[in-house]
Amino acid sequence: MKTPTTLEALIQALRCLPGVGPKSAQRMAYHLLQRDQAGAGHLASALVDALTRIRHCNRCNTFTELEVCELCANPARDHRTLCVVETPADLLMMEQTLAYGGLYFVLMGRLSPLDGIGPREIHLDRLLNRAQDGMIEEVILATNFTVEGEATAHYIAESLRSLGIRSSRIARGLPVGGELENVDSGTLAQAMVERRAL
Amino acid sequence: MKTPTTLEALIQALRCLPGVGPKSAQRMAYHLLQRDQAGAGHLASALVDALTRIRHCNRCNTFTELEVCELCANPARDHRTLCVVETPADLLMMEQTLAYGGLYFVLMGRLSPLDGIGPREIHLDRLLNRAQDGMIEEVILATNFTVEGEATAHYIAESLRSLGIRSSRIARGLPVGGELENVDSGTLAQAMVERRAL
Ligand SMILES: [Zn+2]
Ligand SMILES: [Zn+2]
C-alpha cells in the first residue's frame, strides 16, 4: 500500500519541529488524524497567526506583536542597563529571577561560524546602535556559558570596548556548559549579582 | 514582560502533539519563528490539507484520500484473508514484512474501557460486516501483545465465533508487552507464519 500523499506530506512537514524524527512524526500525524482533529485545526491556525502577527521588537529584538514590546515601552524599567541574552526563552528565565529591572537585547542565537551564524545573524549592528542610544550605561552579557555563548560574549565585549562602552558578564554561577533555560532561578539570580566587568 | 498572546497560543497549540510538554512546545515555537518560518508555513498547510482531504477507507478503515484505498482496490491481493491491526502504522509494518498478501481492517485503536474506548470506537460492527462479505475465509488478529491488544483480539474472536467465522492470532513471536511498531520485520514475519487458530 502507498501511504496517501497528503499524509506523507503531513508527516514530512512535522519533521520541521526540533527533535522530531520520522517515527515520532508518523506517530504525531496519526494521533492528530485519529484522536485530535480539533487540536490539528488549532495548531494550523496558531501557526498562521504566529507567522502573520509575530515580529521582532524594534528595540530589544524579542518576539512581539507590537513595534516596541511592552517591556521596552515600560518607563518603570531601568533604561540605563541592557542585558544581552541569546533567546526570548532566556529573557523569560531572567525575568523570573526578579533580579533584574533593566532592558534587554535578544540576539536570537549565538555566534557559530560552522553553522554560518556570524555577527550579522546575531544582529550585532543593531545591538551596538542600541548600546549607543545615550541612555545605556552598562551592557550585561548574559549569553550561555557554553563554548559558543562565551565566544559570543567576548566578541560583543570587544566590539563594545572599541566604541568605549563598558560591558560586564554574569558570574559563572552556572555550571560550565550550562544553559540558562535549564538553571534554577536562584542560581541565575546569584550569577546576575556577581557579574564581573569584562 | 508578558509573552505575546499569539506566541502563547502557538505554544499551547503545539501541546496537542503527543509527547510534547510545555518546555518542548516553547522550544518548538521559538525554533519555528527564529529558524524555520518556511517549515511552519508548510506545516500549517499540510495540517489543513490533511484535515480536509484524508478520510477513512470504506472497506479497511485506514487513512486514504479515496473512498476505497489502493490496497483494498488491488485485485492482486488475496481477498479471502482479512488481517485486523490496531493502527495504520501497524498496517505499514505488516506490509514491510512482505509476509502477507491479503486485506486488512484497521481498528484505529484497541479496546480500553478506562479510556472510554469500547466496541463502537474500534468499529466492531463494520469489521463484523466486512468479515461477512462472503469472500473472507479467515480473519487474522494482529493486534499488539499488550494487555489491551490481547483483550481486543479475544473480544473480536468471540464476536466472530458467534457469527460462525474463524479467526487466528499471530504467534507470540513478539516479546510480551511488545508493540508491532517497534519490532523488526523478521520477527513479525515469523509471528505471521506461526499464527494459531483461536
Ligand atoms: Zn522590546
Ligand atoms: Zn482500504
Description:
- The structure is a homodimer of 198-residue chains.
- With 198 residues, chain A is α/β, with parallel strands linked by helices.
- Chain A has 7 helices and 7 strands; from the N terminus they run H-H-H-E-E-E-H-E-H-E-H-E-H-E.
- The first copy, chain A, has helices at 5-14, 22-35, 37-53, 88-97, 124-131, 147-161, 185-193; strands at residues 55-56, 63-64, 78-85, 102-106, 138-141, 167-169, 196-197.
- In chain A, the strands form 2 sheets. In chain A, strands 4-3-5-6-7 form a 5-stranded mixed β-sheet. A two-stranded antiparallel sheet of chain A has the order 1-2.
- In chain A, strand 5 (138-141), helix 6 (147-161) and strand 6 (167-169) form a beta-alpha-beta unit.
- The longest helix of chain A is centred in the N-terminal third of the chain and has 17 residues, at 37-53.
- At the A-B interface, helix 1, helix 2, helix 3, strand 2 and helix 4 of A face helix 1, helix 2, helix 3, strand 2 and helix 5 of B.
- The complex binds zinc ion (ZN) (2 copies).
- One zinc ion is lined by residues 57, 59-60, 62, 68-69, 71-72 of chain B.
Concise synopsis of the structure shown:
Chains A, B: InterPro entries: DNA_Rcmb_RecR, Rcmb_RecR, Rcmb_RecR_Znf, TOPRIM_dom, TOPRIM_RecR. 2 copies of one chain form a homodimer. Chain A has 198 residues and is α/β, with parallel strands linked by helices.
List the helices and strands and how they pair.
The structure is a homodimer of 198-residue chains.
Chain A: H1 5-14, H2 22-35, H3 37-53, E1 55-56, E2 63-64, E3 78-85, H4 88-97, E4 102-106, H5 124-131, E5 138-141, H6 147-161, E6 167-169, H7 185-193, E7 196-197
Parallel strand pairs in A: 3-4, 3-5, 5-6
Antiparallel strand pairs in A: 1-2, 6-7
Bound molecules: zinc ion (2 copies).
The site of one zinc ion (ZN) has 8 residues of chain A, from loops.
